Each structure stands twice: as C-alpha cells, then as structure tokens.
UniProtKB/TrEMBL annotation:
Residues 298-319 are annotated as: Disordered. This is Ribonuclease D. GO terms for biological process: nucleobase-containing compound metabolic process. One of its GO terms (molecular function) is nucleic acid binding. Pfam families: DNA_pol_A_exo1, DNA_pol_A_exoN, HRDC. Residues 221-301 form the HRDC domain.
C-alpha cells in the first residue's frame, strides 16, 4: 500500500518577516552571501488581476541563510542580492514563467536548474511542483493560494506561508531529480536545456496579439476582424492605464459578440452580453468609438485573415497549399513520436513543434544527416536533440522525396 504523503503546513524555520526596507534587504544580502549551495528562487505575480507581469513577492531559500520573502514593491532593485548569488546555481520551477519578472528586478542567473523541465525530461506524467514534491520527497504542499491577487498589501499570513513553502523543498527536489537524470543518462540533456534558458533573450512582443482573442475562430470576415482588433486595442490601452488585467476591463467573449453583431447604434452595443455591466457601461464611449472606427475603415485597411509570417503557414493549411509538405510533416511527427517513446520523454521536449514544422516545410535540398543537423541547429535545436533525431529525420525526408 503506498505511503500517504506528509502534509507540509509550515516552514521548518518558522515564517520569516517580509523584507520591505533597505535595512532588511541589506541584512538579507549578507545572509545569502554567507550561505552555501544552490539557492531556491520563486516569484509571485498578480496574473488575472493586474496588467503588468511584474513580481509582487520574491522568495529565496539557501542553506545557511534560511528563507527570505522580499517585497519588490518596496525593494524594487535587487542587484545587490544578484551580485552575491552570481556564481550560485539557482533552482526554479518552470523558470520561463519567472525569469522575465525577476530580470526586471535585476535578478539574472548565470546557472540554473529547472525542476519542472527536469520532470518533463524524466517523463513524469505530472510536473507541477506539488506533484513532484509528493512523488519524490513524500510531502504534500497546499496549493490553495496559487491564483490570489499578490498585489494585495499587506499580504495575509496564510499567503506568505504558502509562498515560503514553495521554496522550502526546492533544493531537495533538485537533488532528487538530478540523481535520476544521472541514472537515466539524461543529465547532459538537462544541462543543455538549462544553459539555453539562461541564454534565452527577453521575449519579443508578439505580432498582432489581438489575434489571440479567445473565440476568434468564430470570426468569418475581414470587417469582423477589424472590430476585434479595434476593441482589443481600446481595451489594452485602458487596462494598461489602470494596471488591470484586460479581462477585468472587458471579456474576450464580449469583444467577439460585438464583432459578430456589428451594432449600428450605441444602444445596440450597450445591449450586447458583457457591455451591460457597470464597468463596461462606464467605458461605453470608448467601446463605441472603437466600433465606429472598425465600421468606417476602408476595405484596403482591413486586417488580413492570416498575418504575414516569416515561418511556415499554420499546419492545418498545408494539405491545400502544399500536400507534399503535409506528408513530410506527418512522417516527421510519426518518427519523432517513436523516438520520444524510446527515449522516455514528451515529443515536444525531444524537438519543439515549431522546429519540426520549419524543417518539414523547407527541408534541405539533399536531406543527408549532416544537412538535417545543420537545419535543426539553425532553427534552435540543442546538440542532444540533433544527435537523437538527425539520422531518422534524414531517412524520413529522403524516403518522402523518393516517393514523389
């Protein structure tokens, strides 16, 4: 019978006070400089509440230093802390989520270990922090405060307790995962992945972000797309100015409803779902201005159905645009699924889907293993990924070419 996990209810050293003064931060810097071994790092944002993705709490833990809960609203410059941790391995869970907001504070690791990514490479079915801690260390973490508004001040003690526990066992989890990676011969793979995270440039702003409006698949015409775009941009300006999550200003489904209905009057707009709330009515002039702008645009200024892209078109369009490319993509995906199963890791971690699409859309003229390896590297594949996939992908592309 499996052993029941032990509930982890409080930090072993007690809940530390929040670091929210220059003096307390200086003391924290001194303590962490004197600590030893890796440092566990986490950050809490106010996603779903605030427009920005800034950190509203930073948690750290290191042997010999204990746990620190830093308020980055009161202490927004953490470069001194970064300096004393420069040569230390940082342990994060799902690092890509936290690295941007940590960087805004001056916290930039030179070396890291991502426990979520390690769990993926080891093919754990669940790679959330609580799931891995339970499976590998035998403790259960309470996750009830994951989605709260961390911009709240003062932060309630139960929230702070939750935040401290997120770094309580992170280094121990790192050690358990590192040992398993070594046992399975995947430690080099993980090292390359972690190094890539450190080198990863800041995220560029997504082109035409309004195209990700939930429900946009219901939109059929370019004129309707213009309604989505103008309402989305108007909402974004309001949300930015008020530092509110855009969904709290106007829901996506309301934008889609207005685009489909194309209201002819202000009253018709006000009667649509989502525009009849007190918040939306307060800004009705803004929404009506956006609607009129979309209505009055000349046809030449309407957005295209698909944005211009440097990469291949969406895979769903390949069968019509280039049936041979669609066949190559299907064959490459089948081979990668087979290789991933053999290596015991998710297919998307063996090779990113975007890399596979780019290779299948524009394969080397002569698909030798060397040419395929070069193409994979050019598209951002790591050395271990190239090593595992180049031969079989070359064979697949060559076979597909021979069947023309």
């Amino acid at each position: 019978m499996p052993r029941q996990p032990i509930p982890l209810l409080a930090p072993r050293d007690g809940l530390p006070p929040v670091v929210d003064t220059a003096e307390a931060l200086a003391d924290t810097v001194e303590r962490f400089a004197a600590g030893s071994g890796p440092v566990a790092v986490d950050a809490e944002r106010a996603s779903g509440y605030r427009y920005s993705h800034r950190a509203y709490l930073v948690q750290l833990r290191r042997a010999g230093a204990g746990t620190a809960l830093v308020d980055p609203v009161r202490c927004p410059d953490l470069r001194a802390l970064n300096a004393v941790l420069a040569d230390t391995e940082w342990v994060l869970h799902a690092a890509t989520q936290d690295l941007p907001c940590l960087s805004e504070l001056g916290l930039r690791p030179r070396k890291l270990f991502d426990t979520e990514l390690a769990g993926r490479l080891l093919a754990y079915p669940k790679v959330g922090l609580a799931a891995l801690v339970e499976q590998l260390l035998g403790y259960s973490l309470e996750k009830g405060h994951a989605a709260v508004d961390w911009s709240t001040r003062p932060l309630p003690e139960p929230w702070l307790n939750y935040a401290a526990l997120d770094v309580e066992l992170l280094v121990e989890l790192r050690d358990a995962l590192a040992e398993e990676l070594r046992r399975e011969g995947k430690d080099r793979w993980a090292a390359e992945e972690f190094e890539a995270l450190v080198r990863q440039p800041p995220r560029e702003s997504r082109r035409d972000p309004w195209r990700r409006t939930s429900g946009i698949h219901r939109i059929r015409t370019r004129r309707e797309l213009a309604y989505v775009r103008e309402l989305w941009l108007a909402r974004d300006r309001l949300a930015r100015r008020r530092d509110l999550s855009p969904g709290r200003v106007l829901a996506d489904h309301s934008i889609i409803a207005a685009a489909v209905a194309r209201p002819a009057t202000r009253a018709q707009l006000a009667a649509l779902p989502g525009f009849d709330t007190r918040t939306a009515r307060r800004d009705l002039d803004v929404w009506w201005t956006a609607v009129r702008r979309a209505r009055d645009l000349p046809d030449t200024a309407l957005p295209e159905h698909s944005p211009a892209s440097e990469g291949p078109p969406p895979a769903r369009a390949w069968a019509d645009r280039d049936p041979m490319a669609a066949e190559r993509l299907a064959a490459c995906r089948a081979v990668l699924q087979e290789l991933a199963a053999s290596a015991r890791l998710p297919t998307e971690n063996l090779l990113a889907p975007d890399i596979v699409r780019r290779l299948a859309w524009s394969p080397p003229a002569e698909p030798t293993p060397e040419a395929v390896a070069g193409a994979l590297r050019a598209h951002g594949a790591r050395a271990w990924q190239v090593e595992l996939t180049k031969d079989r992908l070359a064979q697949t592309l060559a076979a597909n070419r021979a069947h023309r």
